[in-house]
Write a structure and sequence with these properties.
Layout (H helix, E strand, L loop, with lengths): L17 H4 L7 E2 L7 H10 L10 E5 L3 H10 L4 H5 L2 E8 L1 H9 L8 H25 L3 E5 L6 H7 L6 E12 L28 H11 L5 H9 L4 H15 L10
Antiparallel strand pairs: 1-5, 2-3, 3-5, 4-5
The structure holds flavin mononucleotide.
Length: 258
């Protein structure tokens, strides 16, 4: 059975889809504020995101103190765009507030760590991505900062996050330095990501080669992939930090019995 979906390429986006058609992560910002009222628009767009079971399992910490912003940037692989962006948020999953609400009316808290981690991460991400689309529709640039996971436990302490709140990533929003705006970055071929009625039995070697060909625009994509995802890469280095942070924030999954 062939599970691949048809790939109508080239596909023209309608003009109202500009935020999708034109999306690229921005790493060079002008040191200018957002226009008056725009931050509220972006935040309200975020708040309209769907939320699992009306749980609102997220919190965003806006970092306006320059010294704190600098400290976080230093811990996040010293990424200068964290300092330069008009706005920077630490995006957190949050089941602390939800627990208080349940217990406030006499409920017994029934959320274990695994459920909290998955639903909290998905709730927070929907809000964050709504904010990204809103910001880009207003003409701003955005960049997520996964390097928060280089020091999750320290950042949680810096921000006084209680148990049940865990930093996921950062989000920069700011005025694009047009002189340094990058080109659109490629995507993994659609038929290797979107399937119909089931998962493919196998990926053929030529499909994997085709993916490398599509993705190796600036340099061999294997170099980037392996620096993140192969043994000794960034993601493996983050694993013990993440384990520490989950324990510190009361979100370490318990061993399942039986
Ligand atoms: C969860 C997440 C974490 C990311 N972390 C970083 C980061 O720490 N620094 C950075 O410059 N870009 C970061 N990015 C941006 C990605 O590198 C970027 O989205 C990807 O290369 C695709 O490029 P595009 O967004 O320009 O299409 C992150 C993106 C996501 C979704």
């Amino acid at each position: 059975m062939n599970h691949a979906t048809a790939s109508p390429i080239p596909l023209e986006f309608p003009p109202s889809f500009s935020a999708f058609a034109e999306h690229r992560s921005i790493r060079y910002f002008l040191r200018e504020p957002l226009a008056a009222g725009h931050l509220d628009l972006i935040v309200e767009a975020g708040r309209r995101a769907p939320t699992d079971a009306q749980g609102h399992m997220y919190s965003f910490v806006r970092i306006t103190d320059p010294a704190l912003r600098d400290e976080i940037a230093t811990r996040c692989a010293n990424q200068q765009h964290i300092r330069d962006a008009a706005e920077f948020f630490v995006v957190c999953l949050d089941v602390y507030r939800l627990r208080l609400l349940v217990e406030h009316r006499g409920g017994d808290w029934g959320m274990e760590a695994r459920i909290s981690l998955i639903y909290g991460a998905s709730d927070a991400t929907m809000v964050a991505q709504n904010m990204v689309v809103a910001a880009e529709l207003l003409g701003y640039g955005t960049c997520y900062i996964g390097a928060v996971q280089n020091a999750t436990d320290e950042i949680a302490r810096l921000l006084h996050l209680p148990a049940g709140v865990l930093p996921l990533y950062g989000l920069c929003i700011g005025v694009i330095d047009e002189a340094q705006k990058p080109p659109l970055r490629p995507r993994v071929p659609r038929d290797l990501c979107f399937f119909e009625n089931g998962y493919p039995a196998a990926f053929a070697p030529e499909d994997l080669d085709r993916t490398y060909a599509a993705m190796s625009v600036k340099r061999d994509w294997f170099l980037a992939l392996s620096s993140y995802f192969a043994t000794g890469g960034t993601m493996q280095k983050r694993e013990p930090i993440m384990a520490r942070a989950w324990a510190q924030q009361g979100l370490a999954p318990r061993e399942m019995s039986g």
